[in-house]
Specification:
Distance between the termini of chain A: 15 Å
CATH superfamily of the largest domain in chain A: Naphthalene 1,2-dioxygenase Alpha Subunit, Chain A, domain 1
Radius of gyration of chain A: 22 Å
CATH class of the largest domain in chain A: Alpha Beta
Oligomer: homotrimer
Strand content of chain A: 15-25%
Helix content of chain A: 25-40%
Largest interface: A-B, 41 and 34 residues
CATH architecture of the largest domain in chain A: Alpha-Beta Complex
Number of domains of chain A: 2
CATH topology of the largest domain in chain A: Naphthalene 1,2-dioxygenase Alpha Subunit, Chain A, domain 1
Number of strands of chain A: 17
Largest sheet of chain A: 7 strands, antiparallel
Shape of chain A: globular
């Protein structure tokens, strides 16, 4: 029998719901609207997988921290005195108070504001007022969360036993990321957007560009709208764009080869826990950056790049993040579920640590394209959530250029099946 | 076993709850506050009965549309190229997005803003980008909803098999409505009010005038406060009003007979799915319209009426609408459930299509009485919802002049009983 | 089987949850976050125990009333023509409308605004429009609630059979309260604060001063931060404060003995339904009142006190109130649950009925310390609620100076155990 004390790992009939799913079609409504499925998503996906939570640029010095919520969890990501990245549950071991209440900051020790229980950045309890005899501070450290950085991108895993295949993924993607020198970047801007839809609708929306041509006028100045199409499927009106793409891609490949930078696509979206996709692709227009004309948004380039024409190094990591690393800046996205119908999307723009605001870049230009694009996507996601809530909703078929959405759905159902009680 | 995928038709013990009801008394609290009963109401009442949703005046030209929500359903009501009224589920057959997002407008085709799936006003899928071989557009039209107009009032039915007795009702009420020429009206004003109570409290409040004398100072300038009383029950203080009523009613009957307009009451509130009540009754004061002194609110009369003194032709239709057709304007009301404790009331004022705002009528005068009356009713409904939520609430007896409320409750319990799983 | 009509007295496994609790530790998360436990708290605690709701000063004249909500209940507290305090359910016996809708006021009879059903202050139905033959008004009075005043403090009990041990408590605490002459006070200020946490977190927060030293800079000007410590546990930094406390306490005891006022601690927090604690303790600083320097906030003293140095007569009454009676004013607190994570805290400041605002006292100075302290406590409670909602929360041990919190938890679990279905 289910008890109040233990929320169920999964609704009793989640297995049946999964079994009903028709391959190649959108997910059934309960996956988007049910509170029970939402709880199952937190347990089966967000509490089991590695999750991108922050960039190292946000916690450059020992004592720097960010806090964030992952479903019902509150997490502290910080750097200890030895300079290592650490993640801790933001729950005091005394009476459960949130310990750090600001979204980010810098502290010496981590002190709970309620009764001054004091922890170090590794979570060790240093001080707890007057306690009864027999009180052992070693038993009351802040609970640990697995944390690691992949070339400057911080991932955490809430599970006791993190999925093992992350190592492999990290090893294969690091060579794509490292040339951009994220360890020498700073945060130029960060934006939180709450979309009124399920987190999976947010991810699905991101996995196709079928909607870009009409939906993202600013983005398609530089993002080729043929994304996701196979050659045979490209509509006639997009053939000129495709021709530009082929030329730009050839040039980009040469530039990468000269600089010994990897660029080939790796796509392993399903069949593994750490599903991902990585690739370097050219940009349209001037080909340099995500701006309306494609020219750089930051004069001071990342790393020691000698050219601004390096396209976009795009990484997608399941369940909840994607990244674009350019020559002049990097932009990261993390998707955090708040409720069945509410999702936080946090976007962070990084520039070279020596770039000077107002001289090398201005924030409005730097953030313009993705600020607009996110807002447009938020509208699409909100309409999708509203629509699938109707009893008349029937999942339709994915088009060929939505194959990555279908792959995400496959991956998601793999995770949920794996998490079903045996 | 109940699955997530199929929400239950009714709570397991709705039958028991219905059986507990004491005839002649108000409904028990769960009928007003329970989320399960609310879902059962949507399924057993709103997804089965004919529902008034709009006037034809709101969709005069092909391509004109309104969208509205009925519980979790989103509906498009539109006019096709042949001029016929159509209703469609507002859910894209691709990935479920809301298709039309404005409350009203005019379109050539119906285009989903997400991936540009394009439908005609009959719901037929005309265009859907590049699809896999074997994709049959004929299988992906917008889902149809039964729709019909009764002399200019548009009703829809979400059920596959609409209740048959609507035909009979339509045939009997049309002769009362037709003389007002709604096909030659336009919308002068429309007002949405969200009341903080269950939809049944809204309907019950509308079915008695016990509360009018103190509750509706503007309305009772013209609406006789003896409504619902039998002769023996009329309180002494209302006898002068009753004497005025008898004189005005005799005059009205003559006027109707001269013009061959039906006026007799038909009251079939329970014992049938399409429960209704229709009657022409006189107005107090100048006897012409719903204004503070009873004079007309629009100089240009409806149809080709030769007198403004035609009283009010009042139609009540269960579950969720009522109408007042006067000589100078018509006003329609539709009640749409949003949540157990939230209900939308939409009021629409129609005037002759040739009436000129600022010349023949002004909106403030036209809408004054029902704007005030609706607001007052909203307060009553909110207090009733708050009160019945207390564990101390015990349904009290209806007074004789609340017999129509009792009839509505009887009708409602008939519907719920009918919808119980066998 | 549970029916919709009867909400369960307790969740099916509340017994199991209670059994899991570890003595001496904070409560498990479901006690704070579960909607089922919240409902069980209302039924098992708030609908069974005596609850402090108002001071007599708020209803000085016949017809004066206050309304307040206790969970889903709405209650009228009033004074009848004979001057007796009465409590009634604020639910019309007709169709359940809230009867009185203002938070306080003064009326002749109690008239429901919906259909004018009219009751006297004892709840008797005086008038109900035209009713069917056989309608017996005596069957439709407003439902009664037990009410009584303890030396000017009004308590109600929603149960049919109130707990018997309240009499004993009332008899023992009255001699502490009576010298302050609350019957000759008036309300100088009242403040409602909605804290974003469970009502038990609000009470627990109030039962310890472990958090005062850092958390309440204004309060500890006069409230000794050694509260709750035993002599051996007092940290060294607090020894000077403790020395001041001992001197002030000796002086206070003399003052009380001279005036024949009781001051000894009585502490019976668990093992009985009407758990309470009462004591007179000295104040720090000037020792007169809750101000930043400890001097009086009202020149006109309560009763006929000849000295402002009478410390604080502090009463704590479970489940939901505490009181501080000083020489110059009194302040009362009542804690009313709104939702699992929302709680109303109402604070009322009383001064002598002859004190003149702007001459004898000003409201800002009078309310300053507890206004600040309440706001700070609200922040602590909100952080605790947020923290215990994390799946990572594990109840920690209470420190020795939190023994009253532990006692409250023991008392609460006694109540819940008692309320379990047999």
């Amino acid at each position: 029998m289910t008890t109040i004390a233990e929320r169920p790992t999964a609704p009793a009939d989640l297995g049946g719901l999964i079994a009903q799913h028709r391959d190649g079609c959108a997910l059934e409504a309960p996956f988007y609207v049910s509170h029970e499925v939402f709880d199952a998503d937190i347990r089966g996906v967000f509490a089991r997988c590695w999750i991108f939570v922050a960039t190292e640029a946000e916690i450059r010095e020992p004592g720097d921290y960010v806090t964030l919520d992952i479903g019902p969890y509150s997490v502290i990501v910080t750097r200890n005195r030895e300079g290592q990245v650490r993640a801790l549950h933001n729950v005091c071991r005394h009476r459960g108070s949130r310990v750090l209440t600001d979204p980010s900051g810098s502290v010496g020790n981590i002190v709970c504001g309620y009764h001054q229980w004091t922890y170090d950045a590794d979570g060790k309890l240093l001080h707890a007022g007057t306690q009864a005899p027999g009180f052992n501070p070693n038993c009351f450290g802040l609970k640990q969360i697995h944390a690691r950085s992949v070339a400057g991108l911080v991932f955490i895993c809430l599970a006791e036993e993190p999925p093992a295949d992350f190592d492999d993924m990290a090893e294969r993607v690091a060579p794509y990321i490292e040339p951009h020198g994220l360890e020498h970047t700073k945060v130029a801007a960060q934006e939180d957007l709450i979309e009124t839809g399920n987190w999976k609708l947010v991810m699905e929306n991101n996995r196709e560009c079928y909607h870009c041509e009409n939906g993202h006028p600013e983005l398609i100045c530089t993002f080729f709208p043929t994304y996701g199409y196979t050659l045979e499927e490209i509509p006639e009106r997009l053939l000129p764009a495709h021709a530009r793409y082929l030329r730009a891609d050839a040039e980009l490949q040469r530039a990468c080869q000269e600089r010994e930078m990897p660029f080939a696509e790796i796509e392993e979206l399903s069949g593994r826990v750490s599903g991902f996709r990585i690739q370097r692709e050219p940009l349209d227009g001037a080909g340099e950056s995500y701006t309306r004309d494609g020219t750089s948004a930051c004069r001071k380039l990342l790393a020691d790049f000698d050219t601004p024409r390096l396209g976009r190094m795009s990484l997608h990591h399941q369940p909840n993040s994607w990244f674009h690393l350019l020559a002049d800046h990097a932009v990261t996205f993390t998707v955090l579920p708040l409720a069945p119908d509410r999702t936080l999307v946090r976007t962070t723009w990084l520039v070279h640590e020596d770039a000077v605001e107002g001289v090398d870049y201005d924030v409005a230009t730097l953030t313009d394209v993705w600020h607009q694009t996110n807002a447009q996507d938020g509208t699409f996601v909100g309409r999708a959530q509203a629509g699938v809530s109707s009893p008349a909703y029937e999942p339709g078929p994915y088009a060929p250029n939505e194959y990555q959405v279908a792959a995400f759905v496959t991956w998601y159902l793999e995770r949920m099946t794996e998490a079903l009680p045996q």
